[in-house]
Write a structure and sequence with these properties.
single chain, 95 residues, 3 helices, 3 strands, globular
Length: 95
Amino acid sequence: MTALFPQKYPRVVAKIITLDNRRMALPKSQQVKVYSLRSSDQPADAGVLPTDNDQKKYKMTIVKLPNTIHNHMDDNASDAQRAEINGYVLQFLQD
């Protein structure tokens, strides 16, 4: 839903943060700032993640978490994983 909402309502959203979305393509927009935290084990479907060129063009921030699997990006996260995820989210919110 996070990746879909700004595509349907681009004037309502200024930024999105996704946690390892795997099905819905991230929006490509100059108006919506896109941040995405990626797990170390689950690939996204084709076309979900932007190309390197699109990441630069639209100033997207994609961060791979090498020590966090998809199923630990929720309440199953360790304290260290949770701290890392929260740290990035706070950084993204302040950007």
